[in-house]
Amino acid sequence: MPDRSSQWFVGLMLITVGAAIPSLQAQENQPRPLNQAAPDKQKEEKLAYFRERLETLRLAAVGSPNKPFRFVADPVITFENPVSQMWDGYAFVWTDRGRPAAALKCYYHSLNKRWGRTFVSLATERIELVSDDKKLWTPQEAGLSFAPLPSGPPVAADARRRLTQMRDIARRFEMVDQWGLKDPTEWRLRLLPTPLHRYEAPDEEVVDGAMFGYIVNSPEALVLIEARKSEEGLAWHYAVARFTRFAVTVSLDGKQIADFPRLEAWPPTGVYFHDPVELPDYPFQRSAEPVAPKK
Length: 295
What we know:
Blueprint lengths: L6 H4 L3 E4 L21 H16 L3 E4 L8 E2 L5 E5 L4 E11 L2 E11 L4 E8 L5 E5 L2 E4 L9 E2 L10 H12 L2 E7 L5 E4 L1 E2 L5 E5 L4 E10 L3 E12 L2 E10 L5 E5 L2 E6 L11 E3 L2 E2 L17
């Protein structure tokens, strides 16, 4: 089974968790055309462009439209896939009193001149997304449910040790993705060791929590791991979610615990929803983009 260490894939995907990693080669002495913005400034402009369009969306629990969830303006990850002509990719989350309630992947697809937007519910209740006073996304069920973690270690008293524990727990999960539009291939998704999002949710007795991503060229599956208060003390709980239309199987300690089937449609009533938007005048189009190879 191929995994993300395959050499051919390294050059096709650029991923950053949390914030961009500066180039190892010094660039300050290289001349730059007058019409080319400084890289950092252009990144800020791109992010501001998408933020402006996302901050108008309102996500809330069904029946509580006046208590919108918080949109976290800083992306949890950035990504690009030059072969598929996917540029300027970002993932964001909305939180409900600390805990992630939904996640979004978005990117500019230069072949179709569209802004790809993929939403997935991470809420334990029904939610709805409103855009321009119209309901855009109305999942008919909760996005996920939590379960006690079997054979979990005693929850550490300090945050740094808990992070190490959560990373170790995340490694116990194996995600296999039937990846690809034509002739899907099994890919063992690679765990990003840095959590996409770290949180606490006092109203839900969550002392510490982390959301981990498992990737091909962007997160395809998510695991939420939480240390919760209980009558017996602190205990670990977990939940899993898809973040792709492709089929994903999830195993914990070698035992399959979830099987997400391939989706041939992703309506606004589903937990997973894809909603592309036409962007014919995207201001950050690249001057020379490679042509995707024919299959």
